[in-house]
Write a structure and sequence with these properties.
This protein has about 250 residues and is mainly alpha-helical. It contains ten helices and no strands. The protein has one domain (about 1-250). It has helices spanning about 10-30, 60-65, 80-95, 100-115, 115-135, 140-155, 170-175, 185-200, 205-220, 225-250. The chain is globular, with a radius of gyration of 22 Å.
Length: about 250
């Protein structure tokens, strides 16, 4: 999508979390608290198999046949980062003085990174959300949503919303419990596969993608100056994050 270049990527979020952890650890040590220092091969990070670089679910008949409406398990090993977060959470509850020290170290991290990058990423995400809402009002999208609904009714999918954008409904989600192995139940798989197939056969997938693309282009044209400034802010922030991670890597070679 046109606004993707101005948005925060999954890899951005992970890099920031990792860089922040590398700053917080030494800060806590200076205050007399020791936490595990995680190691993460950031260059080997692989997103979930049915999620794009922005975290959006890639919903196809093929992915739906395995994962339903759920995101696939994380493929990269984040165990050290998760273990560190677990230790910190426990120490915040149990260790006198730790919570105050931790919050101070987090504040120091924000002082280093600033907060402009948050606004820049959220600005683009807000425009993308507006574009999605505009796209849903396009005649082709409305018409193909009706065809999708007819297709789903023929598949016996139960009580349906007016548009596939609203799938799955909360009542559906409440009725689906994961199997013992953590995979989606057969009922969810059945509805999800029908949903994905009906989106394609009705023309909804193509109509919505095209409408959303055009809606984003219009918003980019209107907000070009703000987006250019935000893009520069994000790039500077990414450079800063990578420098912190790179310094840590060099120290541990």
């Amino acid at each position: 999508m046109p606004l993707d270049a101005n948005s925060l990527r999954l890899n951005d979020t992970l890099r920031f979390e990792y860089a922040s952890s590398l700053l917080i650890g030494p800060c806590l040590s200076r205050m007399g608290f020791n936490v595990p220092e995680p190691w993460l091969d950031i260059e080997e990070f692989v997103a979930r198999e049915n999620v794009n670089h922005l975290g959006r679910l890639l919903f196809t008949p093929e992915s739906a046949s395995t994962w339903g409406y759920r995101k696939a398990p994380q493929q990269s090993d984040l165990s050290q980062l998760e273990a560190r977060d677990s230790v910190i959470a426990q120490m915040r509850d149990d260790t006198p003085g730790f919570d105050e020290a931790f919050l101070r170290c987090v504040e120091e991290g924000y002082e280093i990174f600033g907060e402009d990058w948050v606004g820049a990423g959220n600005y683009a995400m807000g425009l993308a959300s507006n574009a999605s809402a505009d796209a849903q009002q396009e005649p082709d999208v409305i018409e193909t949503a009706k065809l999708w609904r007819e297709c789903m009714e023929n598949a016996g999918a139960g009580v349906l919303p007016s548009s596939p954008i609203e799938m799955p409904t909360q009542s559906m989600v409440n009725s689906w419990q994961p199997d013992d192995d953590g995979l989606p139940p057969a009922a969810e798989i059945s509805v999800a596969v029908s949903d994905a197939q009906c989106r394609e056969s009705s023309g909804f997938t193509d109509a919505f993608y095209s409408a959303e693309w055009q809606a984003q282009l219009k918003l980019i044209d209107v907000n070009r100056d703000s987006l250019l400034g935000g893009s520069q802010t994000l790039q500077e922030w990414r450079t800063q994050v990578d420098a912190i991670i790179g310094s840590h890597v060099e120290e541990n070679l």
